[in-house]
Specification:
mainly alpha
C-alpha cells in the first residue's frame, strides 16, 4: 500500500487575520478555507492556491 502524499498547504505559521478582508496575513486564506483545507479535493486546493498571490498582493504581502 502506498502512503498518501501530504496535502500541500500555503501556511506560513503567521496566523493573523486581516479584519477588513478576513484573510490570513501569512497565507491569504479565509478562516473557512483554513478550517476545511484537509477536506478539500486536490482541485479545490489548487484553485485556492492559484488565487493566493492576488489575495496576498491586496494584503500587501507575498506568498
Amino acid at each position: 500500500m502506498v502512503a498518501n502524499a501530504p496535502i500541500a498547504s500555503p501556511c506560513a505559521l503567521i496566523c493573523t487575520l486581516d479584519l477588513k478582508s478576513e484573510l490570513c496575513f501569512g497565507c491569504g486564506r479565509s478562516r473557512a478555507e483554513i478550517a476545511r483545507w484537509t477536506r478539500y479535493s486536490d482541485a479545490e486546493r489548487a484553485a485556492i492556491m492559484t488565487a493566493l498571490p492576488a489575495r496576498m498582493s491586496k494584503l500587501g504581502a507575498s506568498v
